[in-house]
C-alpha cells in the first residue's frame, strides 16, 4: 500500500486565500482598464489620451463635403448706418480732390453689436375729471405693466436663457447683465423669472406628455444630480421632436411613475438594459452601443475571443442594414451566429460555485452576465433588424441627458426641489424648440409675454 499524504490544513487555507486575492487582483485590473470605449463610464473620466471610437473610418476627407452649402459673412443690402469717407488732399498732378466730382464708391462693412443698454419705455395713463359730475377717470395700464417700475420680457428671457439654457450660475448671470446693460438685478430676481416661466409652461408640459405617449418609439435614460446636498435623479423620456426632463429623489420605478409617461406608454422603449425599465408595460429595445463597449472590454482586456467575434458580427450586420444591402439570408445567418457565440460565451465563463461560509449568491463573471443578458434579451437587442423605426442605439436619450450632466459640472446642483423641477420644465421647452427648428430666444420672450408658441409632436 502506498503512503497517503495528509493535506496540511494551513496549506488549504493559504491556497483558498491566494485564489481569493487573485480574483480580487483581476477585478482591480479590470477597473483600471475601463474607459468610455469599453464600458458605461463617461468620457469625462477617461485618461488624457483619446479612447478608441466605434465609428468606422470612411473614405471622405475631413471638413465640409462637396455640395455642402457652407456659411460665411455676407454683404448686407440694407446697412443700418452709412459713413461716407471723403477723399481729400491733392492729386499727383496738383488737382485738389475737394474740387473733383465723385464718380463711384467702394464699400466695406463691419457687422457688430449696437451699444448695449436698457431700453426704457414709460407708460403715461391719462387722468381726466368729468366737468359735469367731477368724477375722476384714468386710462388702464397694459397687463404686463403691473408695478411702477419693472423689467420687461426680454430681460426676463435673457436671464432665464443664460441660467437654464447655458447653465450659468445665478451670481454670474447678474454680473453679465450688470456688465452689458448696467442692470444691477439680484439673484432673487433671476430665480423669480425662472419660477414664472415654469408656471407659464405647465400647459406645454402637459401637451408634451400627451405627445410622447402617442409615439411609436421613445428613448429613456437617467443621471444623478444634487438637490440641497442630497442625491437626486434626472430622468429623460424623448424622441426626435420632443424632450421631457423630470427630477425625483429616487432613481427607480417610483420616479418613472411620477413622470407620468412611460408607465402608460405601450410603444417601444429604447434603454440601456437597466432592470427597472423592464417593468414598463411597453415593448423593449436595448442600446447596442452599450453592448459593443462591453464586448470590446471582454475581447481586448479579458482575452475572450467570442466577444470580439460577436462585436464584429454585430457591427457588420448594422452597417449592412444602414446601407440598405441587408438580405434575409444574411439576417438569418447572423441570428444563428449570434446564438452560437452567446453559447460560447457561457462556456468560456462557467458558473461560479458558492463559497463555503459566505452568505448570498456567488458573484458571476462579467462575461457570463453579459452572455446571459444576450440570451435573455435577444429580441430586444436585435429589434432594430425587424423594425425600421427602432434605432440601433440609444443615442437620442444619451444626447439629451448629457445636457443635465453639463449643468451639473458647470453650475452644480439645486438649492431646492422646486428649483430643480422648474429647471426641468424650462429645459424641456428649450430642447423641444431646438428639435423643432424654432428660435429658443423668441420662444422664451413669448413665454414672458404670456404667449406660448405652437409646437407639433407628430413625426
From TrEMBL:
**Transposase IS66 central domain location:** 149-421
Q: Where is the composition biased (Basic and acidic residues)?
A: 47-60
- Which InterPro entries has this protein been placed in? DUF6444 (IPR045618), Transposase-related (IPR052344), Transposase_IS66_central (IPR004291)
Outline the extent of the DUF6444 domain.
14-72
Coiled-coil annotation reads none
- Chain residue ranges for the region called Disordered: 32-79
Which NCBIfam families has this protein been placed in? transpos_IS66
**What PANTHER family does UniProt report for this protein, alphabetically?**
BLL1576 PROTEIN
The name under which this protein is listed is: IS66 family transposase
Source species of the chain: Deinococcus wulumuqiensis
Amino acid at each position: 500500500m502506498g503512503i497517503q499524504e495528509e493535506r496540511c490544513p494551513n496549506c488549504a487555507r493559504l491556497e483558498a486565500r491566494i485564489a481569493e486575492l487573485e480574483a480580487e487582483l483581476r477585478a482591480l485590473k479590470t477597473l483600471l482598464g475601463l474607459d468610455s470605449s469599453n464600458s458605461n463610464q463617461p468620457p469625462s473620466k477617461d485618461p488624457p489620451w483619446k479612447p478608441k471610437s466605434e465609428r468606422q473610418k470612411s473614405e471622405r476627407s475631413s471638413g465640409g463635403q462637396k455640395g455642402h452649402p457652407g456659411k460665411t459673412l455676407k454683404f448686407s443690402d440694407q446697412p443700418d448706418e452709412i459713413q461716407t469717407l471723403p477723399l481729400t488732399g491733392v492729386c499727383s498732378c496738383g488737382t485738389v480732390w475737394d474740387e473733383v466730382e465723385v464718380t463711384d464708391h467702394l464699400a466695406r462693412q463691419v457687422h457688430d453689436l449696437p451699444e448695449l443698454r436698457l431700453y426704457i419705455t414709460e407708460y403715461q395713463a391719462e387722468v381726466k375729471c368729468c366737468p359735469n359730475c367731477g368724477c375722476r377717470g384714468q386710462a388702464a395700464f397694459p397687463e404686463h405693466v403691473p408695478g411702477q417700475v419693472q423689467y420687461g420680457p426680454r430681460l426676463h428671457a435673457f436671464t432665464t436663457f443664460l441660467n437654464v439654457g447655458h447653465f450659468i450660475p445665478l451670481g454670474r448671470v447678474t454680473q453679465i447683465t450688470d456688465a452689458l446693460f448696467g442692470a444691477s438685478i439680484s439673484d432673487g430676481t433671476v430665480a423669480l423669472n425662472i419660477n414664472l416661466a415654469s408656471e407659464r409652461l405647465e400647459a406645454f408640459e402637459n401637451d408634451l406628455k400627451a405627445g410622447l405617449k402617442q409615439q411609436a418609439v421613445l428613448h429613456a435614460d437617467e443621471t444623478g444630480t444634487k438637490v440641497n446636498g442630497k442625491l437626486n435623479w434626472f430622468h429623460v423620456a424623448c424622441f426626435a421632436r420632443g424632450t421631457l426632463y423630470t427630477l425625483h429623489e429616487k432613481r427607480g420605478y417610483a420616479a418613472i411613475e411620477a413622470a407620468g409617461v412611460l408607465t402608460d406608454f405601450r410603444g417601444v422603449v429604447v434603454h440601456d438594459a437597466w432592470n427597472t425599465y423592464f417593468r414598463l408595460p411597453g415593448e423593449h429595445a436595448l442600446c447596442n452601443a452599450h453592448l459593443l463597449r462591453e464586448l470590446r472590454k471582454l475581447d481586448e482586456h479579458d482575452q475572450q475571443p467570442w466577444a470580439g467575434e460577436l462585436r464584429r458580427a454585430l457591427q457588420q450586420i448594422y452597417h449592412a442594414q444602414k446601407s440598405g444591402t441587408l438580405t434575409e439570408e444574411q439576417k438569418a445567418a447572423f441570428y444563428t451566429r449570434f446564438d452560437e457565440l452567446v453559447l460560447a460565451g457561457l462556456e468560456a465563463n462557467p458558473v461560479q460555485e458558492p463559497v463555503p461560509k459566505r452568505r448570498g449568491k456567488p458573484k458571476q463573471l462579467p462575461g457570463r452576465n453579459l452572455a446571459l443578458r444576450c440570451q435573455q434579451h435577444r429580441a430586444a437587442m436585435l429589434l432594430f433588424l425587424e423594425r425600421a423605426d427602432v434605432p440601433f442605439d440609444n443615442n437620442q436619450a444619451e444626447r439629451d441627458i448629457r445636457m443635465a450632466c453639463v449643468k451639473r459640472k458647470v453650475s452644480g446642483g439645486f438649492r431646492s426641489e422646486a428649483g430643480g423641477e422648474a429647471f426641468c420644465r424650462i429645459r424641456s421647452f428649450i430642447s423641444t424648440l431646438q428639435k423643432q427648428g424654432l428660435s429658443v430666444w423668441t420662444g422664451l420672450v413669448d413665454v414672458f409675454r404670456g404667449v406660448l408658441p405652437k409646437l407639433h409632436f407628430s413625426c
